């Protein structure tokens, strides 16, 4: 088994930082994102303080995110034709201008809710171009494509680390100095990321053509998504989570003050807890060696997110709410980053910008409609009931995505295999596996004998006993695999066969004589099959 000492493990988790350009981006963007999260929390608190209306919270969120729904596909076309490096610098400068105007208005006391709506709309336009371009730009900062997944996970770690620090600081600053200071700090924080971008040395990217035919580019991108089952289903699941799930953040001020009886400190703790969960999720993804298995993670994290939203909506205890926010942050981050990694791995290079723009539409562009819808629901039926509905819809969407997972695997596994992500199997590994496979086969036959022998009634144990025996044998096989210290490739082979053991142990119908099983029909013969390379996950 491949063991790493802690220092080696940390280097492996942070391996994308060995690239100079990515290190510059990581440090500069990390400082800037802290200011961004401070501004976001301060803006929500200021809106609710001025209006005391959940509907206006939804309107502000709608204003900041609706441009992504309209303009992100356009940004994706330009990202595939223009210099992404120059575009990222331009969007960061415009975001600094917006934060500066917001700080001046807030500190002067002249700010109104209409100023906030207009400035949120302006920032939404900037982000509509910034997000897909910045997501596409990541691949230019890492030299090896196998490190792309790690870079995306570290981006998520950076984003959610700032999500932990920023709101916590903002809650304390708002309580003592007001919202304007948070806006000012955000404006200053851009002085870290812009010089970092200017210090990069980005090689010239070869593009097919610098002429932009907007209509043709959009049609080509949508046609590509429509004909790609994995991309289509992943974007649909992400859109549902964004529409019905992410709107929980709009109502956090309502829960912090009216449901939990707190103030800006409580709001900061709630947002910070989600940031901690997201950081743990990002570290978990960064420690993974391969993109293989991310489809199952999307199902797990989406279900965790939906359950967390439902329990949070019913909670009236701050500690329980913080715990649920931790799970919500973990689930949302893992689901989003896993989807991003799969998309960036399988997409063609000349369509990367457009696919990332549709990713931004699904993740950010759909969110304003969900925020407005949730705000309207909360105004009529209350914030808790609104979030119960949202969480339930997320769970239903997760079930539907799970049913489509086999279709997705049929498409992506050949792509992974072509890219060399499945290690080759040699004869030595296969020979080493034979004793364990033999042990599993014998165990399976014994279970079938206990389960189906009609003449020997004394061996007809209850179903619960047979299930316990099955689980015990499965656990023993997995334990032996660890003790044998086989390489990662081999450890993926035999556990993938264990469901076959369990299914046949419960549903097999062999003859009475175990010795005759090998000569009986295929339905009665216990087998342990070694999957091919394309079916290891």
Automatic annotation (TrEMBL):
Question: Which Gene3D superfamilies does UniProt cross-reference here?
Answer: MFS general substrate transporter like domains (1.20.1250.20)
List the Pfam families hit by this protein, alphabetically: MFS_3
- Name the major location: membrane
Compartments where found: Cell membrane
Q: Could you state a single Gene Ontology molecular function term?
A: transmembrane transporter activity
Which GO CC annotations does the UniProt entry carry?
Answer: plasma membrane
Coiled coil location: none
Record-linked CDD domains: MFS_MefA_like
Q: Which domain of life is it from?
A: Bacteria
Which parts pass through the membrane?
21-43, 55-78, 85-107, 113-131, 152-177, 183-202, 233-255, 267-286, 293-312, 318-343, 355-375, 381-402
Q: Does the keyword Secreted apply?
A: no
Major facilitator superfamily (MFS) profile domain segment(s):
16-409
Stated name of the protein: Macrolide-efflux protein
**Source organism of this protein record:** Syntrophus aciditrophicus (strain SB)
């Amino acid at each position: 088994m491949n063991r790493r000492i802690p220092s080696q493990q940390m280097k492996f988790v942070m391996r994308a930082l060995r690239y100079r350009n990515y290190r510059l981006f990581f440090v500069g963007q990390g400082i800037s994102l802290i200011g961004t999260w401070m501004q976001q929390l301060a803006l929500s608190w200021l809106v609710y303080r001025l209006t005391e209306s959940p509907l206006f919270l939804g309107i502000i969120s709608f204003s900041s995110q609706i441009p992504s729904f309209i303009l992100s596909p356009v940004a994706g076309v330009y990202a595939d034709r223009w210099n992404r490096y120059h575009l990222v610098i331009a969007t960061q400068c415009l975001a600094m201008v917006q934060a500066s105007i917001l700080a001046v208005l807030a500190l002067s006391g002249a700010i109104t809710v209409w100023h906030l709506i207009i400035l949120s709309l302006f920032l939404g336009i900037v982000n509509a171009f910034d997000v897909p371009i910045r997501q596409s730009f990541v691949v230019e900062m890492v030299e090896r494509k196998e490190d792309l997944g790690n870079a995306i996970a570290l981006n998520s770690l950076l984003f959610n680390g700032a999500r932990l620090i920023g709101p916590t600081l903002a809650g304390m600053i708002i309580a003592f100095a007001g919202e304007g200071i948070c806006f000012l700090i955000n404006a200053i924080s851009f002085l870290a990321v812009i010089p970092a971008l200017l210090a990069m040395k980005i090689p010239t990217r070869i593009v097919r053509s610098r002429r932009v035919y907007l209509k043709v580019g959009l049609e080509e991108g949508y046609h590509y998504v429509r004909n790609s089952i994995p991309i289509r289903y992943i974007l649909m699941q992400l859109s549902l989570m964004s529409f019905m799930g992410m709107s929980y953040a709009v109502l956090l001020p309502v829960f912090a003050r009216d449901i939990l009886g707190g103030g800006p400190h409580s709001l900061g703790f709630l947002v910070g807890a989600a940031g901690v969960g997201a950081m743990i999720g990002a570290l978990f993804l960064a420690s993974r060696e391969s993109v293989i298995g991310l489809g199952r993670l999307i199902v797990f994290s989406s279900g965790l997110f939906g359950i967390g939203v439902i329990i949070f909506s019913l909670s009236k205890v701050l500690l329980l709410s913080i715990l649920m926010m931790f799970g919500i942050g973990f689930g949302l981050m893992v689901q989003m980053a896993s989807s991003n990694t799969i998309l960036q791995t399988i997409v063609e290079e000349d369509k990367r910008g457009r696919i990332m723009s549709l990713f931004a539409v699904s993740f950010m562009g759909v969110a304003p409609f969900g925020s407005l819808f949730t705000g309207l629901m909360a105004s009529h039926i209350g914030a808790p009931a609104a979030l119960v509905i949202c969480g339930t819809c997320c769970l239903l969407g997760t079930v539907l995505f799970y049913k489509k997972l086999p279709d997705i695997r049929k498409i992506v596994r050949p792509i992974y295999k072509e890219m060399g992500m499945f290690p080759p199997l040699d004869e030595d590994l296969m020979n080493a596996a034979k004793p364990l496979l033999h042990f599993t086969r014998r165990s399976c036959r014994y279970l079938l004998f206990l389960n189906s022998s009609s003449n020997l009634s004394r061996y007809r144990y209850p179903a619960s006993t047979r299930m316990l025996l099955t689980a015990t044998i499965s656990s023993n096989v997995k334990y032996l695999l660890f003790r044998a210290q086989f390489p990662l490739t081999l450890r993926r082979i035999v556990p993938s066969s264990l469901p076959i053991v369990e299914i046949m142990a419960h549903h097999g119908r062999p003859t009475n004589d175990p010795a005759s099983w090998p000569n009986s029909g295929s339905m009665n013969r216990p087998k342990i099959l070694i999957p091919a390379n394309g079916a290891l996950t």
